[in-house]
Amino acid sequence: MTSLPFFQVDAFAGRAFEGNPAAVMPLEEWLPDATMQAIAAENNLAETAFLVPSEREDADYDLRWFTPRVEVDLCGHATLASAHVLPFETRIRFATRSGILTVERRDGLLRLDLPAGTVTPGTEPGLLGALGLPEDTPCFLGRGGNGAAIALLADEAAVRGVDPDFRALKAYDRLVMVTAPGEATDIVSRVFAAYHGIDEDPVTGSAHGSLVPFWAERLGRTRFTAFQASRRGGRLECALRGDRVVLGGTCVTVIEGRFAVPSRAGHQPPSE
Asked: How high is the pLDDT of residue 143?
């Protein structure tokens, strides 16, 4: 039996039980992939972040993210959560599948810098129907991160009222978003990741990698506020800087302890 450090952090949260919970497990060296996937399945959170000290000159840590079912290319909230539990003064750098991501501590917020996605008009067959939306709903597809599909709705009430068919959404290997101008914030959204085993994600940093350039063009400015209208909810400070997106938020540690890993751990969770 091996005992490993374990943190559960609510990211993009002003207090416990808000935002998006992520598990963070700092390691001295990588575990086998199957073991990390089994741990993520056991945690049963949207993402578990694993990190080891980096040997690269341009990074402080190497970072990987696992949902209960798969490893993903980008996860914003678990990156913010990782920075929250690690000791650093003003800036920390992570080497990831999506390149170098940085988090800065500034003005009372943790500010995550990640790649901006590119968004163009388009849809996939059946996607709007899976969301329960009319086929003439404006829809856009994004590249970068975990991929994106964005349905543009009229207002926040319409976003909150979306009732997807999650079984149908599992066919789409991308983050599926509905968004509109917000009421208390500049924009509002919801994000569905059924393909990755997450029906609705509470607050999604990687989704805002596409939502921020999408809305910067429509709002005519590069700084604005966002709210992700999941059951838990979360607020983000957003900025577009060239081909990078900066997301500001706060985190709260809700669990700190040790994770007991059996010496023969490593089975894959069963497929559905």
From this structure: 79
pLDDT at residue 271 above 80? no
The helix/strand/coil state of 264 is coil
Helix axes 205-219, 76-85, angle to 10 degrees: 120
Tell me the pLDDT tens digit for each residue of 180-214. 999 999 999 999 999 888 999 999 999 999 999 99
Is residue 47 flagged as an active site residue?
A: yes
SS3 state at 131: coil
Domains with residue ranges and CATH for the chain: 2-115+250-261 (3.10.310.10), 118-231 (3.10.310.10)
**Catalytic residue of the set 47, 71, 104, 272:** 47
| Spatial contact of 56 and 95, defined as CB atoms under 8 Å apart | yes
Give the span between the Cα atoms of 143 and 187, in whole angstroms: 21
> CA–CA separation, 20 vs 45, rounded Å?
9
